Amino acid sequence: MALSGKKTDVPETPTAGELDVLSVLWNSDSPMRLADVRRTLNDMFESIGEPALASSSVGTFLRRLVDKGLVREISAATGKPRGVARVRGAATVDTRKMVGRRRTPNLQYEAAYTPSDVLATTFKSLIASYSDDDRAAGRPLVDFARAMGFNDQKISKIRKIL
């Protein structure tokens, strides 16, 4: 996955469904086709007792993520981003705006940002929900470690560091 290595502002916050799709892309080593995203997502949903999503729903999430700039469309044939054409050698034009979207089995998708870039605002909002005293004591970090499934021994080490 070719994510931007530099710190940058995320264009727009994703919805819960879009985050589900992003989590699939973040856990992939290479760009994925819609069918593969849907299969992986539905396997994940099945494991937690959630209903499966239709291809059209996953496609809608992917299109919205592309429109928000959080996901890139990649040509399966060339491995290059879709929708950008060279004009007279130097300038580029976004051709997606010139023609309507069409279904194509030759499209793949990859995340344009890392999880930490996308989730930074969410993390900050969660931390802000704690009292000043709890924040000073590191309670958000301990609670996050607990939510990640850290055992009591690791949580004790985190508390000692704080």
Provide an overview of this structure.
Helix content is 48%, strand content 11%. It has seven helices and four strands; from the N terminus they run H-H-H-E-E-E-E-H-H-H-H. The protein has helices at residues 16-26, 34-47, 55-68, 115-128, 132-136, 139-147, 152-161, and strands spanning 71-75, 84-87, 91-94, 107-111. It has a two-stranded antiparallel ribbon. It has a two-stranded antiparallel ribbon with strand order 2-3. It is elongated. It starts with 15 loop residues before the first helix and ends with a helix.
Count up the helices: 7
The CATH topology of the largest domain is what?
Arc Repressor Mutant, subunit A
H and E string: HHHEEEEHHHH
Strand content: 5-15%
* Overall CATH class of the largest domain: Mainly Alpha
* Distance linking N and C termini: 34 Å
Tally of DSSP β-strands: 4
Q: Which features would summarize this protein structure in a list?
A:
single chain, Arc Repressor Mutant, subunit A, 2 domains, two-stranded antiparallel sheet, elongated
SSE blueprint and pairings:
Layout: H1 16-26, H2 34-47, H3 55-68, E1 71-75, E2 84-87, E3 91-94, E4 107-111, H4 115-128, H5 132-136, H6 139-147, H7 152-161
Antiparallel strand pairs: 1-4, 2-3
Helix pairs in contact: 1-2, 2-3, 6-7
